[in-house]
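Good morning,

Attaching, inline, the backbone tokens for the sequence recovery test we're adding to the shared suite. The designed sequence is right after.
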């Protein structure tokens, strides 16, 4: 089989720790082009991952390379323009989260991919985490009964220890990031809860602050209350002010409490109402703290979906609906009202 031709736009941290090594390890693809506005980053990626051609302009790369796949690993404000340009050129797009900076952008990305007849996937890796997949099974099969409530959190000390540009990163500039911890971490959890519960979040209330970081015009600490279409209520916290990482989710159901990524050894703990507790050791979640971002299955899943022409787990509509929860939270924080996002969902 001819290998799929891959180009990566943005050769910073998520490219380095996930996209590049995972494409490199996949036998069905070839990393033929690397693009970054900082040329040395693209050169470095090329040197380490197969010698692909180096670009500083993504349009030039897409125009010239006859790509099958583009990974969009740029700052948030470029997700929509790069994805749309690639879709219009007939390329399958794997775009990092948050999908876009507005509903309109997300809609345009979906439309462009649809029109081209190509795939668009949003890289919500939390769906592929083994504890999350096991919890999804327990919920979907009805084993833990009706779900009443949840709390989910994603917090760590912030992107200065992660982004290739450290404390000078685009993550802290509203013009490029659009949102702070809510876009970086909160959207992971709105997507995760929609996936786990198998239903849409339709109402959102939020307090969103900038409390821990100086010299930034984006948020760093948020707590939201969420309600699903069937009346499950819960909280979502996203923060760059947690001195140690919290990436946990607790689900309170009729027959059990599920503790996901809450115990350092057992990534899923099921505490049944009968008194029995089952502890699963399923492998660790990708974490900034451990530096371990590979083995996410995101790239393998996307490549397989193209080769086998199967549905992607997180398509544009999914990415958009997870984004809408975050946009609803921003609106709630502004207006001091609970926001109903039902009519904005796909
Ligand atoms: N799925 C996850 O778990 C996860 C984790 C971290 C980051 N991300 C997402 O990945 C994206 C990138 O984040 P990061 O952590 O790699 O940031 P980063 O700051 O480490 O890297 C961003 C890179 O993009 C480059 N860039 C900027 N403008 C460009 C342009 N016009 N063309 C080409 N390259 C350009 C920068 O030079 C830099 O090398 C963000 O959207 C972020 O939210 C996802």
């Amino acid at each position: 089989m001819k290998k799929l031709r891959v180009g990566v736009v943005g050769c910073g941290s998520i490219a380095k720790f996930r996209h590049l090594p995972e494409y490199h390890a996949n036998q069905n693809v070839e990393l033929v082009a690397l693009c970054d506005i900082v040329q040395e980053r693209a050169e470095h990626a090329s040197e380490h991952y197969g010698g692909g051609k180096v670009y500083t302009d993504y349009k030039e790369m897409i125009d010239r390379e006859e790509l099958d796949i583009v990974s969009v690993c740029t700052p948030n404000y470029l997700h929509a323009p790069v994805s749309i340009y690639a879709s219009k050129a007939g390329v399958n797009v794997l775009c990092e989260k948050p999908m876009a900076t507005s509903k309109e952008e997300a809609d345009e990305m979906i439309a462009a991919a649809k029109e081209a007849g190509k795939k668009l996937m949003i890289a919500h890796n939390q769906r592929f985490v083994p504890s999350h997949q096991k919890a999804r099974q327990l919920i979907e099969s009805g084993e833990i009964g009706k779900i009443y409530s949840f709390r989910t959190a994603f917090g760590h000390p912030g992107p200065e220890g992660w982004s290739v540009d450290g404390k000078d990163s685009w993550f802290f500039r509203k013009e490029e990031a659009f949102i702070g911890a809510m876009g970086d971490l909160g959207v992971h959890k709105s997507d995760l809860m929609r996936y786990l519960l198998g239903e849409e979040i339709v109402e959102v209330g939020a307090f969103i602050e900038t409390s821990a970081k100086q010299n930034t015009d984006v948020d760093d600490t948020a707590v939201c209350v969420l309600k699903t279409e069937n009346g499950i209520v819960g909280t979502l916290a996203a923060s760059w002010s947690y001195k140690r990482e919290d990436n946990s989710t607790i689900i309170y159901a009729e027959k059990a409490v599920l503790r996901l990524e809450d115990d350092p050894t057992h990534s899923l703990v099921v505490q049944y109402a009968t008194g029995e507790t089952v502890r699963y050791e399923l492998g660790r979640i990708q974490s900034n703290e451990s530096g371990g971002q590979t083995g996410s299955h995101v790239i393998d899943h996307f490549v397989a979906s193209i080769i086998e022409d199967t549905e992607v787990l997180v398509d544009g509509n999914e990415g958009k609906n997870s984004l809408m929860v975050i946009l609803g939270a921003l609106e709630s924080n502004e207006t001091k009202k609970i926001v109903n996002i039902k009519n904005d969902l796909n």
